[in-house]
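Re: [ENG-882] Designed sequences occasionally contain unexpected residues at chain ends

Forwarding the minimal case from QA. Structure tokens:
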């Protein structure tokens, strides 16, 4: 009997979060020359691009590809609550986040 897609593989993700007390996170925007575009504003969440390879495939022989940390997510406690509430499966558009062609690509491996 052939294994179903769900029996052959699974997809895992790690979302690095830095959680801060409320009212302690600010964002600022800069132009291409590094000049501040406007005054910093208080926020409940923001991301920071890292693009750092965290694991080389040779470090974990059973892993098929290297892992890369693309972004760090900074959140206040209120922002964390909002993020967790957004994971409600009734509100998530899974087809947007995990398109069928991505799933089929993993299934062919």
């Amino acid at each position: 009997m052939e294994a179903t897609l769900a029996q052959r593989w699974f997809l895992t993700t790690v979302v690095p979060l830095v959680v801060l007390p409320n009212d302690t996170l600010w964002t600022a925007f800069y132009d291409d020359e590094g000049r501040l575009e406007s005054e910093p504003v208080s926020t409940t969440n923001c991301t920071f691009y890292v693009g750092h390879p965290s694991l080389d495939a040779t470090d974990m022989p059973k892993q098929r590809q290297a892992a890369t940390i693309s972004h760090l997510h900074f959140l206040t406690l209120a922002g964390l609550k909002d993020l967790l509430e957004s994971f409600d499966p009734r509100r998530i558009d899974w087809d947007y986040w995990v398109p069928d062609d991505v799933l089929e690509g993993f299934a062919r491996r």
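QA comment: On inspection the terminal residues look reasonable. The chain is about 25% helix and 25% strand. Proposing we downgrade this to a documentation issue.
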